[in-house]
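Entry 12.
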Amino acid sequence: MHQPSPPGTAGAPPSSVLGLNTYLMYATGKAARRRLTDTLAAHGLRLWHLTILAMLDEAGRLSKGDLATRLDMNQSDLTRTVTDLDAAGYVECARDAADRRRIEVTLTPAGRHALVRLQADVSSTEAELLSVLDQEERERFTALLRRVHVQLEEGRGAGGPVPRPAQETAVDCA
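Predicted 3D structure (tokens):
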């Protein structure tokens, strides 16, 4: 016969699962992503929008193919997302003068301004998520997460999934 859960434990995973770092990373990441999604949705954007804006801010003008490759993003998803950003005035798309098949994407001043606002809101969300940690613990947590992330990313090239080559398409942003 099924025993009811003690008060305050409904929906809690088994304690043995809470001992698995992989489960904790998954569950914590899922909760963090929900909060980040809510923060971005308040601006009418999604995580890929933020990621593309940040990549263009950091790297400058990039072709759609280069963006897709750098972000390991499906070309059709990238095109849809860039189209959204273009419609919002956050990016501009232009054909490469040297190769008319290539579409170059550039961050606009409005896109840069939106990115600054987004980063401020995302920082507030992150501060809320990590409020249980003091500053030294946050810095250590970030360093450890970054180290695991780098190792996992490097592992993709050695026995991990083979990255898909991006295909350039002659499609405008809109």
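Annotation: Residues 23 and 29 are 10 Å apart (CA to CA). Helices lie at 21-41, 47-59, 64-71, 75-87, 109-129, 135-157.
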